[in-house]
Specification:
This protein is an alpha/beta fold and about 220 residues long. About 35% of the residues lie in helices and about 30% in strands. Strand 4 and strand 5 form a beta hairpin.
C-alpha cells in the first residue's frame, strides 16, 4: 500500500488559453495537513478544486489511495470519500442540526444513526447549544463551525479547505483553528488547505507549499 492518499501527475489546467495550474508531481501523505499558500491568482483554489474532482483538468492524471482515477468514469464514488469547505459556509436556510445532517440524509443513513452522528460533531465543534438555531442567525464563526461539522460528519478520507477562515476576525479564527487542529489530529484525517495567511499556514500545516503563477515553487 502506498503512503500517499492522493497524487497528481503532470497536472495541467488551462483557462482561455492560459495555464492556470502546472504541477509535474504532487503527493499528499495519509493523515498529513498540507497547506498551499500564495497570492491572489496563483492558482491555489483551482488546484484544490481539481484535486477534489470538482474541476476538470486538461492533461495529466490523479491517483487516489493507489488507484488511478479515470476522469471519464463515474467520479461520485471518489467524491463521496472527500469533503470540501469553502470560504463562504453555504448553509441552507434551516437549522444548524438540519444543515449538519444533510449529507447523511442524502446517503440514506437511518434516523437514529443520523441523530447520534450529528450530536457528536456538534459537540466536537462546541455548537450543540445552537442545534435548533436558524443558520441565518449565526455569527461568521458559528456558521463556519457548522459548515465544518457538516463536512466531517461524513468522515471523509480527505478534507479540502478553501480559505475557510479568511473572513473571520482574528480571535474567532484563532479559536476555530485550534479546535479544528485538535479534532483533525484525533481523527487522522488528511487535509489540503489553501490560504494567503502565512501565520495560519505555520500553525496548521505539517507541510507548506508555495504557489506562484500556477506552479508549486517550494514545498517542505
Amino acid at each position: 500500500m502506498t503512503d500517499f492518499i492522493l497524487e497528481a501527475h503532470d497536472l495541467w489546467v488551462t483557462l482561455g488559453g492560459r495555464v492556470i495550474v502546472d504541477i509535474p508531481y504532487l503527493g499528499i501523505l495519509k493523515g498529513e495537513t498540507l497547506v498551499i499558500i500564495g497570492p491572489n491568482g496563483a492558482g491555489k483554489s483551482t488546484l484544490l478544486s481539481t484535486l477534489a474532482l470538482l474541476q476538470k483538468h486538461g492533461s495529466g492524471w490523479l491517483v487516489f489511495n493507489g488507484e488511478k482515477i479515470d476522469s471519464k468514469a463515474d467520479l461520485l464514488p471518489y467524491r463521496r470519500r472527500m469533503a470540501v469547505v469553502f470560504q463562504e459556509p453555504l448553509l441552507l436556510d434551516t437549522t444548524v442540526r438540519e444543515n449538519v445532517s444533510l449529507g447523511l440524509k442524502m446517503r440514506h443513513f437511518p434516523h437514529g444513526q443520523r441523530e447520534e452522528k450529528v450530536r457528536l460533531w456538534l459537540e466536537k465543534f462546541k455548537i450543540l447549544h445552537l442545534a435548533g438555531r436558524s443558520a441565518r442567525t449565526l455569527s461568521g464563526g458559528e456558521a463556519q463551525r457548522t459548515s465544518l461539522a457538516r463536512a466531517l460528519v461524513l468522515e471523509p478520507e480527505v478534507l479540502f479547505l478553501d480559505e475557510p477562515f479568511s473572513s473571520l476576525d482574528q480571535p474567532t479564527k484563532d479559536k476555530l483553528l485550534s479546535d479544528l487542529k485538535r479534532i483533525l489530529a484525533d481523527k487522522r484525517i488528511t487535509v489540503i488547505m489553501v490560504t494567503q495567511d502565512r501565520e495560519e499556514a505555520r500553525f496548521f500545516a505539517d507541510r507548506v507549499g508555495v504557489m506562484l503563477e500556477g506552479k508549486l515553487r517550494q514545498i517542505d
